Structures are given as structure tokens and as C-alpha cells.
Amino acid sequence: MITDILCSSFAVALENAKNYEVTKIQSERCSLTNLYNYRYFESMLNDEFEKVHHFEREMLSLILLDIDHFKAVNDTYGHQSGNEILCELADRLKKMVAGRGTVARFGGEEFVVLLPNMNKTDAYETAELIRQSIANWPFSLYQALNQENKQMQVRITASIGVATAPEDAEDALALVRHADRALYVGAKRAGRNRVAEYSSC
């Protein structure tokens, strides 16, 4: 009887632990791309910025990426195809960044890459490699509208902004804001499909 009670208690504890892990993953991950979500990214960004302030990190770079004309993709091929592109892009970003940083879905068609101890020059080069990998290799669609389930290839581009702390920002919010400014002013307004770094000038 004691063995049965202990086994039952152990089974309940295991099930609770499993449910906790599932809930934790769901709260940290984007359900579509399986990347970290904005909530997790924000927490990690604040933690990394604290390390910069306490000289545990020399620098912290941030890449903010936005797919160009993504609404047109959804309108032309359907939202399911748009989701396919988001998932494939998420996989490409994870492979390219690998162990050098953290990739998260920032929201909609925006993604963010956090790169601890990477200077702006290296972050810019990483962003340019990401831009080229998006522009030069088509994305595969399997569920496009009116395609009778035939695979098709679609080309897209992305605009990217880069900012680095502490040279560009004194707090986490400013780092995101400055990468966003580089993205929209330096890349989008300049013609899209390009990388821009933040400049205070």
C-alpha cells in the first residue's frame, strides 16, 4: 500500500512538472514560429542591459528586422502562405544566429536579434548576411491561394536596423527605439531591402 501511495504521488509530481514546463514554454514562445516572444525578449534585454551596466558585458547589439510589403504577400497568396514565410524566416534566422545571440518574434512581421558582446561593425555584417539570405533565396509556399497545393517559390526582402549599447543607448528602451529608427528612417525610407545602423547625427 505504501508503495502504491508513493508511486501515485510520484506520478502526480511528474505530471505537475510536465504541465509547468509546457505552460512555461507557451508563455515564452511564439505559437506560430516557436521563437521567443516579445515578453521573453524584453526580460532578456533588460537582464543583458544590467550586465552592460555592471561591466559584465562590454557591449550589446540589437538587430530589428521587418519584412518589406508583407501585407501584399498576404493579399496575394493568403494569410496561410504569409505564416509559412514567417516560419521559414524564423528557421533561417535561428540557423544564422546560432549560439551568438537570441532570436525573437517582435510582433507581426518583425523579428529581433539580441547579440551580447558584439560590436556594431560585426552586428551590421551579421544583419547584412541576414538581409542577403532573405533577398537571394526564395521562400517555399505550399498553401498559396489558387495554386492547387502545388509548391511555389516567392521572393521577399527585408529592411533591417542595427543599434549597439552603450555607444547608442543608455537603457534598454533606447536601444530598441534607436534600432527601430535605423530600420524605418535609414532602411525603409531609403528604399527598403537594406541595412541601416543608428547614428545620432
TrEMBL record:
One of its GO terms (molecular function) is diguanylate cyclase activity. One of its GO terms (cellular component) is plasma membrane. GO terms for biological process: cell adhesion involved in single-species biofilm formation; negative regulation of bacterial-type flagellum-dependent cell motility. SUPFAM superfamilies: Nucleotide cyclase. It comes from the Bacteria. It holds the Pfam family GGDEF. InterPro entries: Diguanylate_Cyclase, GGDEF_dom, Nucleotide_cyclase, Rev_trsase/Diguanyl_cyclase. SMART domains: GGDEF. PROSITE patterns: GGDEF (PS50887). PANTHER family: DIGUANYLATE CYCLASE DGCM-RELATED, REGULATORY COMPONENTS OF SENSORY TRANSDUCTION SYSTEM. This is GAF sensor-containing diguanylate cyclase. It comes from Neobacillus massiliamazoniensis. The lineage of its organism: Bacteria, Bacillati, Bacillota, Bacilli, Bacillales.
